[in-house]
Design brief:
430 residues, alpha+beta, FAD/NAD(P)-binding domain, Elongation Factor Tu (Ef-tu), domain 3, six-stranded antiparallel barrel, binds flavin-adenine dinucleotide
Length: 430
């Protein structure tokens, strides 16, 4: 049996932030225990940003977050802006730099430095970390009734590990993340633990994940990266557009743009009954009419050119061939000749609106984030304390909050962790 004042379950990004905040505010008056089921902490964090850790974004705002009630994140983001999070990392030894699109990284571009700084700051503040402690069950001890007056027990939460060890604590912070990337420790155990305490979870779905599509077009271009605009269409209607790098793969589409749309595809597939397509604009530099005239003039200038090379230079050569073939249904070896306006319009449409039927998304192993989670309506948005069980807090990805690709998910993990840790420690001071 181990007794402590504040126990944090899950030593990922949110759990570390929560433990550090609680220990800082407690300043030695309250004991803080960080429990991690894996033998080593921080496996997921080490993989973030391809090992460089995109830890926040200057454009953090409510609009970047999704879930049943995205406005829930507002008070937390108000307290912990991107600047405040970068200051926190600077204080613990990791200065950050930002890119033109707002993404922030540690100056040394190493996720391992972020992990080390968190571990050392936790140690410095007196947090005790227990790895290999897999919390399998949570019990809340009832108040003892003394002549009808409830006498609250000092440490009402009992955390039971798989091996029978028990931790008793006054405050409990659940920071167990979600099932994305199980090979890096992702799991839904937190949803189960919070479920046993009365907190309901929404459907869990993979997000920031590659999109699977019908094969012929994408497979022929597998491995090619292009810059363009991808628009997700539901029953022919545009839902969201993203501009940037698109990577073709055997199974469908990857790269930053597709990852960004993946969560929305996941949710739409889950709803069912809709036709989903990705429309790709390979040449967003011109509007449709300008592009059509430009193609007519190009055909006049490039006498003798065949479909093999007609779009080369403007588009990636293989993409140009695939689009030419799909748009005009003409043999690539035939000379293009004079383009009449109707044919030029068909080709311009193919260049700016190639439609690929979406079949789904890759699975949990490939997903970076979990869409869905524990319902936020069960928690106070300012303190992240449970509305059902006083003294219980949560933070990070276990909640029904998922952010866009670009540092927004780690931002939520740090910011919500810092809020939950502060709130838990402050409640003990009262
Ligand atoms: C490959 C990859 C790259 C990513 N890159 C970025 C990026 O660059 N920028 C960004 O913003 N986001 C990125 N993300 C997303 C980001 O890593 C997560 O959103 C974030 O780590 C969530 O933090 P968390 O603390 O809530 O959960 P986690 O980091 O998943 O931590 C939860 C911890 O709880 C532990 N745990 C679970 N159950 C128990 C239990 N019962 N008992 C004890 N311990 C338990 C787990 O082992 C884990 O260590 C990436 C994700 C992946 C997979």
């Amino acid at each position: 049996m181990i007794d402590c004042d504040i126990a944090v379950v899950g030593a990922g990004a949110a759990g570390h932030a929560a433990a550090i905040a609680a220990a800082r505010l407690s300043a030695g008056r309250h004991s803080v225990l960080l429990l991690e089921r894996a033998d080593r902490v921080g496996r997921k964090l080490l993989a973030t940003g391809g090992g460089t850790c995109n830890l926040t974004n200057l454009h953090v705002s409510v609009e970047r977050y999704h879930g049943a009630d995205p406005g829930f994140v507002s008070p937390v983001l108000h307290t912990w802006s991107a600047g405040a999070v970068m200051d926190f990392f600077d204080e613990i030894g990791v200065p950050c730099r930002t890119e033109p699109d707002g993404r922030a990284y540690p100056c040394g571009a190493q996720a391992s430095a972020v992990q080390d700084a968190l571990r050392l700051e936790a140690q410095r503040r007196g947090v005790v970390t227990l790895s290999g402690f897999d919390v399998g069950d949570v019990r809340v001890r009832d108040p003892i009734l003394l002549e009808d007056t409830p006498l609250y027990v000092k440490r009402p939460f009992e955390l039971v590990a798989g091996d029978g060890r028990v931790v008793r604590t006054s405050r409990l912070i659940v920071a167990t993340g979600g099932p994305a990337a199980p090979q890096l420790g992702g799991s839904d155990t937190g949803h189960r633990l919070l479920g046993s305490l009365g907190h309901v979870s929404t459907q869990l779905l993979p997000a920031i994940v590659q999109i699977t599509t019908e094969k012929p077009f994408v497979k022929s271009l597998s491995g090619i990266r292009v810059q363009g605009v991808a628009t997700l269409l539901r029953n022919g209607n545009p839902v969201r557009s993203e501009q940037g790098e698109i990577l073709f793969a055997d199974y469908g589409l990857s790269g930053p743009v597709s990852l960004q749309l993946g969560g929305m595809v996941s949710r739409a597939i889950d709803t069912g009954g809709e036709v989903l397509e990705i429309s790709i604009n390979f040449f967003p530099e011109m509007d449709r009419a300008t592009l059509t005239n430009w193609l007519i003039r190009r055909a006049e200038r490039l006498t003798g050119v065949t479909g093999m090379d007609f779009l080369s230079g403007a588009l990636n050569k293989r993409v140009g061939q695939a689009v030419f073939k799909a748009g005009l249904g003409q043999k690539l070896t035939d000379p293009v000749g004079v383009l009449d306006p109707a044919t030029a319009t068909r080709l311009a449409n193919a260049i700016q609106d190639t439609r690929i039927r979406v079949t789904g998304v890759q699975g949990w192993r490939e997903a970076q984030v979990t869409a869905g989670g524990v319902e936020v309506s069960g928690f106070e948005p300012e303190s992240l304390e449970s509305r059902i069980i006083p003294g219980l807090y949560t933070c990070g990805e276990v909640l029904d909050v998922d952010g866009d690709c670009g540092g927004y998910n780690l931002h939520w993990a740090w910011a919500s962790g810092l809020v939950a840790g502060n709130s838990a420690a402050r409640s003990l001071e009262a």
